[in-house]
Specification:
The chain has 308 residues and is an alpha/beta fold. It has one domain: Carbon-nitrogen hydrolase (Nitrilase/N-carbamoyl-D-aminoacid amidohydrolase), CATH 3.60.110.10. The chain starts with a strand and ends in an 8-residue tail after the last helix. It is built from 9 helices and 14 strands. The strands form 3 sheets. Strands 5-4-3-2-1-14 form a 6-stranded mixed sheet, covered by helices on one side. The protein is 25% helix and 25% strand. Bound molecules: 4-methylsulfanyl-2-ureido-butyric acid. The site of 4-methylsulfanyl-2-ureido-butyric acid (CDT) has 8 residues, from loops.
Length: 308
């Protein structure tokens, strides 16, 4: 059965003024260190190439488009793909995708160890709002800048392991993990940018947000008997703090590695994918134990309907 040393490459803050080239140089440094420590997969955060721009209200779409990539690999990211291929390390990272048809997505890709893109995911659960909100301490305009992902929750066999991706807010939704769990997923990679404070409730701070992040990632791993890698973009971006708390979780829900800083930081875990089998064949043997005749509401109904 397959073993793999997996690295979560947490990124510290990226300021508005930082170029893609500067960020890619930081990603390359983490890649080199991860390879020197035996990693064969490196996972970077959501929107890894830029600041978390959805916090800024931009009425001009020409300005919005400057945060998006029209091709991948792009000129700026090509050195990352080339170095990953030289080192024989698979990578996954998030970026803002502008398609030839003019559609905007919050996207993540995964490569094999030859630097070839083998999987693409577009974020399904977009948080935030469309219009400028005067009631918030800061904006969260993902619903304005991105379309909901149109690719669903797919998995790919990569280096002998069944892998899938999700992005940030997706990690809070059990449906995300279960859609991949039903395809036998063994590793789910999830990059995130989570503000350290709640823009609508100033009393909610970092401690609760880190707890909710752990809770979501650990339960998703356990309930689907899969490894989960959650990787933050952390630190203070132009005055706006993001949580760190990157973790690698095993199929029992235990945390194998945890970031201690809010800077560029690697976390590593030696993942033995044989460990997925026990949960998948016992308590979470879906074929034997699921009762789909009672789950109709999950897909036929979106919001709460109170009938009593
Ligand atoms: N990027 C992203 O999806 N962020 C959201 C913020 C929601 S507020 C808790 C997240 O789910 O972390």
């Amino acid at each position: 059965m397959t073993r793999m040393i997996i690295a979560g490459a947490q990124l510290g803050a990226i300021q508005k003024a930082d170029s893609r080239d500067v960020v890619v140089a930081r990603m390359l440094a983490l890649l080199n260190e991860a390879a020197s420590r035996g990693a064969t997969l490196v996972v970077y955060p959501e929107l890894a190439l830029t600041t978390f721009f959805p916090r800024w209200y931009m009425p001009d779409w020409n300005e919005v488009d400057t945060w998006f990539e029209t091709e991948m690999p792009s000129r700026a990211t090509l050195p990352l793909f080339e170095r990953a291929r030289e080192l024989g390390v698979a990578i996954s990272f998030g970026y803002a995708e502008l398609t030839p048809e003019g559609q905007h997505f919050n996207t993540s890709i995964m490569t094999n160890r030859k630097g070839e893109i083998i999987g693409k995911y577009r974020k399904v659960h977009l948080p935030g709002h469309v219009e400028y909100d005067t009631e918030r301490a800061f904006q969260h305009m993902e619903k304005r800048y991105f379309l909901p992902g149109d690719l669903g929750f797919n998995v790919w066999r990569n280096e002998g392991v069944i892998m899938g991706m999700a992005i940030c807010n997706d990690r809070r939704w059990p449906e995300t993990y279960r859609c991949m769990g039903l395809q036998g997923v063994e590793l789910i990679t999830i990059g995130y940018n989570t503000p350290a404070v709640n823009s609508q409730m100033s009393a909610e701070g970092q401690e609760k947000r880190l707890f909710h992040s752990d809770l979501s990632l650990q339960s998703g791993a356990y309930q689907n008997a899969s490894f989960v890698v959650g990787v933050a973009k952390a630190g203070v971006e132009d005055g706006h703090p993001l949580i760190g708390g990157s973790i690698i979780v095993d199929p029992d829900g235990f945390v194998l590695a945890r970031a201690e800083t809010e800077e560029d930081e690697l976390i590593l875990a030696d993942c033995d994918f044989a460990k997925c089998a026990f949960g998948k064949t016992t308590i979470f043997d879906f074929e034997r134990h699921r009762r789909v005749e009672h789950y109709g509401r999950i897909t036929s109904q979106t919001g709460v309907i109170i009938e009593v």
